[in-house]
Specification:
The complex is a heterodimer.
Chain A (H helix, E strand, L loop, with lengths): L7 H11 L29 H13 L8 E2 L12 H7 L2 H4 L11 H18 L3 E2 L6 H16 L4 E5 L4 H11 L5 E5 L8 H7 L4 E8 L9 H10 L3 E6 L17 E5 L15 E5 L12 E5 L5 E5 L6 H4 L12 H37 L5 E3 L8 E6 L4 H10 L2 E2 L2 E2 L10 E5 L6 H13 L10
Parallel strand pairs in A: 1-13, 3-4, 3-5, 5-6, 6-7
Antiparallel strand pairs in A: 2-8, 7-8, 9-10, 11-12, 12-15, 14-15
Chain B lengths: L9 H4 L19 H4 L17 H12 L22 H7 L2 H4 L11 H18 L3 E3 L5 H18 L6 E5 L5 H8 L3 E5 L9 H7 L4 E7 L11 H10 L3 E5 L19 E3 L2 H4 L14 E3 L11 E6 L14 E6 L16 H37 L15 E4 L1 H7 L3 H10 L6 E2 L8 E4 L7 H15 L3 H5 L12 H6 L11
Parallel strand pairs in B: 2-3, 2-4, 4-5, 5-6
Antiparallel strand pairs in B: 1-7, 6-7, 8-9, 10-12, 11-12
Helix pairs in contact in B: 4-12, 6-12, 7-8, 12-15
The chains are: A alpha/beta, B alpha/beta.
Amino acid sequence: MSYILNTPADQQAMLEAIGVPSIDELFAQIPAELRLNRELNIPPALSELELTAHLGQLAARNVACGQKVCFLGGGSYDHFIPAVVDYVASRGEFYTSYTPYQAEASQGNLQAFFEYQTLITQLMGMDVANASLYDGGSAATEAVLMCIHATGRQGRVIVPSSVHPEYRQILQTYLANLGTELVTVGTPEGTINPHELAAALTDDTACVFVQHPNFFGCLEDVQSLVKAAHERGALAAVSVDPISLGLLKRPGDYGADIVVAEGQSLGTPMQYGGPYLGIMACREKFVRRMPGRIAGQTVDRRGKRCWVLTLQTREQHIRREKATSNICTNQGLFALRASVYLAAMGPQGMREIATACVRKANYALKKLTSGNRLTAMFDRPVFKEFVLRDAAGRVDELLAEALDCGYFAGVPLGQWYPELGDGLLVCVTEKRTRAEIDGLAARIAQQRQPKAAVHA
Amino acid sequence: MRNTRATQLLFELSRPGRRAAHIPCTDVPATAVEELLPAEALAATPPPLPELAEPDIVRHYANLSTQNMSIDTHFYPLGSCTMKYNPKRNERIAGLPGLADLHPYQPEETLQGMLQLLYEMQAILAEISGLDAVSLQPAAGAHGELTALMMAAAYFRDRGEKRTKVLAPDSAHGTNPASAAIAGFEAVTIRSAANGSVDLADLKSHLGNDTAVFMITNPNTLGLFERQVREIADLVHQQGGLIYLDGANMNAILGIVRPGDFGADMMHFNPHKTFSGPHGGGGPGAGPIAVRKFLEPFLPLPVVEKVPSPSSRPSPVKEEGDFVYRLVRQRPKSIGRVRSFFGQVGVFVRAYSYIRTYGPQGLKAVSENAVLNANYLLSRVKHIFPVPHGDRCLHEFVATAAKLKADRGVSAMDVAKRLLDYGFHAPTVYFPLTVKEAMMIEPTETESKETLDAFAETLFRITEESPQLLHDAPHTTIVSRPDEVRAARQPILRWTPAGE
């Protein structure tokens, strides 16, 4: 057997030591009538060679992003990953270790988490960060739950429709059982209007949750939004694109109370949506309400600086039903990847990547809208994504034809926003070249004239 | 020889002007950023990150890595966590561009291989669980629990029933009551009987028509099969409640007994435990759930389905046979979405590789050898570290150091710390809470008799060492006995420059 070390002789010796005649006897505590008296009906075993061939075939039935030119975004991004990230994360001492319950046996992970927390606070301009959550969506949800508990306001949570639709769906799922209303404010201009936000705010509002840059790639007037929330005693939670912080003000510098992010951009492959990295940082006064693992600095019995998991009285294994959250695991391996990524980029690298994204995206926006067919949906400043309107109202056809020519040209928005059925979300990272952008623009310009829309 | 600079922080190694990564010069017009973005949105300076060259980073992390114990380097009998060997072929496969370089919003016709893999994974988990329908969405075991409890809430709402309580044994993982609270239920603790199983009388006294769910861990956290599970399930079902199985301990029963066959209505798997996904220093995990048919409408979405291929369907990729795989995104009774995109896909690629490496007989052999190893180790240590609940176990057992504590003042924690000096990771200590001075030991099937013998002999040797030596242990690790109280009372949660 592939990863079982016991030989028949070992098994025999072990059974004798235990004092039972057979392995089956060890399962005697399971009532016979409950036993499965047949083989599992699952596919047969494969050797490594066969397995590699089989999975190679499955992989070949997908179209990898690298086989096309990828303009897909919407929360998962085709950013460059330096080799040093893969090197560090593939060290078995990191990726085959567990949650650092025994601090002395885990100083590598604990120090790496402490450094990750520091890097995240530096990036976000916040006081404290945890050692990561499942993904951006779960971090968003946990941030909202923190706001509800911290304010003691159960009534409502305000979220503009420019927040990632899947984050809003997750929030809806969680809040359905807690009696808090999720109030969605429309964003027909691409961003939330601070006056409309002010009108939606009540004295029972726990928080305003905004995304900046938002799902459409537009910059929100985030400073006014934070101010409006605070004026009514609500907290302001912000979801950011960590890459954008190479250029944009840090959330801590404009007053956000809790900051979350999808950390996939920081050195994690897209891998069809997961596992990713949920980043969370907050003001110091909320730290005891923060979910998840936190590494803290202390000294050992010899007075040497070291690290442990700390503030565990918040956590489920101690507090049980009174815990801040039910979260048990974190995304340690991806927190490590993000740390290496940020260390490799440093301040200048982050600024250069953010600058490349904003320049290339704005170039692409101009280029793609230079023909007759595509126009900008919103007149707002954008970072690395933007929404185009297809004048022909044939987004699916446009995307399919672009795919035939070698482009994943964008994400159709109609699946989440019926009113934006003629919209597509285009993303341009630092990996896209001018030639690729020009190529897509040329292909779209060459697409045969769309058929007249057929109405049923 | 240790590198004495290894414990410096990244930030202390930083030198202005060093850097590791460069990106190409912009090949589009170098428009000033101030022309593209509003001034009030821009930061005056780049984020204050450390400045390091690539050799700094590699040496730093390579040295840090040596301060971890891991499965690749050490025996790691951490009970309840199932630290088994992580096969290297799985990593290679998961890194294939056709599996790793996929965007979640690619068109489905460009994802047929991935969707097939996920569809097969759903089917495999359904078969192993003895249940009918699977969602791969939840991100971790605790997330799977929460998802299933939210489904239970939706199910009872749909039936017009008001059920407010979720019952869980006192030996349950702390995630059980925490999940119940976050799903909006009142968590009620059920006592364990003297034999470590659920106390039936206590369960009966709490069961009623307000019981939504009874959460059971089986095999339980003592490594014992709850023999009365069928009776428990019948009692709960008679009251109209549901049975949730915490699947953390599935490594004991693959192909031997199925939760659906002993009465569970819902369960989660921990593929990172049972199916060998690397734990990565605490994650990623995954928490897929399996449920009975009548709960399927409430599953979170999307799920993958296999449907006959429309004959005229244009597609750039050749389809397999007459079927295509697609995502179901809408169902009227679904609880909705619990995670972005499709969940922890990379974990499933590894778990799928693992399961396909073993096949049906192999998976059963995994559990048989996990149980054999645990019982062998139990038989070797029980005269020194008694196992309060019998001399047999499934994949793990809970021994107690209570006698050692009483006789010599040596605690389970002392033993755990001293084991590190001998090159063994410590067992889980002080869990479950129902056993004094608990040491929860889970060897898994991927350890050899020699390793188990060496571990047992080390345990004996430790009991003969001086109590002071043990209180001060570990002696050979880079640090020893961190002051956890100080860490919690005066939290230092990030590095700050000297003088701040």
